[in-house]
Design a protein that fits this description.
93 residues; 0% strand
């Protein structure tokens, strides 16, 4: 796999870890895993691998944009991984 697909898989792993691990540690309730993250990550990685065959720079840009969105955006019941990590480390209340 190319770097775009690897970043896509990393994006899915961070999203899943945020819902299962980081949110409960930060005090946002019990773990609540959204199972749709797994197929969505697989499809996204597959599409980024295909796009990287056509235009590698575009695929890498889309993957990095998705990674930044997953790190900074709040989706579902969990807040963003950055906020949850700050709360878990004691930097934010």
């Amino acid at each position: 796999m190319g770097p775009a697909a690897d970043i896509a898989l990393l994006t899915g792993a961070i999203t899943a870890a945020n819902e299962v691990l980081f949110a409960p540690i930060a005090g946002n309730g019990k773990p609540d895993f959204n199972w749709r993250v797994i197929p969505a990550t697989g499809i996204f990685a597959f599409l980024m691998e295909g796009l990287s065959k056509i235009n590698p720079q575009l695929a890498l840009g889309v993957s990095v944009a998705a990674l930044l969105t997953a790190l900074l955006g709040s989706y579902g019941k969990a807040q963003s991984p950055v906020i949850n990590a700050a709360k878990a480390l004691g930097y934010q209340k």
